[in-house]
Amino acid sequence: MNVQSSLIGEAAVASKDKRTTIFQAALELIAEHGFHGAPMSLVAQRAGVSAGIIYHYFASKEELIHELYRHVEADFSRALLIGSPQSLPLAKAFTQVWLNAYRFYRTHPQAARFLEQYKHSPYHQVTALPDELLTNGDFAFIAQLFAADPADRPIKDFPFDVIYELTLGVAARVAYHDAANQQALDDQLLEQIAAACWQAIAR
Length: 203
Prior knowledge:
- The protein is mostly helical.
- About 70% of the residues lie in helices and about 0% in strands.
- The longest helix has about 30 residues, at about 5-35.
- Mean pLDDT is about 85; it is low at about 5-15.
């Protein structure tokens, strides 16, 4: 590798690291104080950079929030695939995904709070299955739940946001409750809750 290529590579790494630092600062502030309590000036202060640096990477606070959502949602989506649920029968796959969501919410409380705030804010309106689930082959087993023809769906014909609240929304609430009470439900009870969520949406 020549000197110029090395410098370009180092600059790319530095840029990625700075974006990650800004993301983390914004995530912490939004989790602690909400969207209105996280102005760009405080994000810059928390990240240890100038406001000008932030605006070099993000044109506006809105763009930063949307990019942060995509960043956190990507981590969440990867976490949902732990244990290869896509290789399991549908009901068991759902249980595994639900348990993965619960564990993500327990171990990443700031990310969990951010996702919940984002999903219930003017920044985000859930109207359909997210595009990333439809285009990612690993999530084909989830996409089939929302087949184009309602008659072919293995779940009830509810709006997507209702499906979310009856499933991963429950995982989030249980995780928050456990975290607040510094306790963890045993695996058997968690699997029973996941099964009840499946029964709530399955035909």
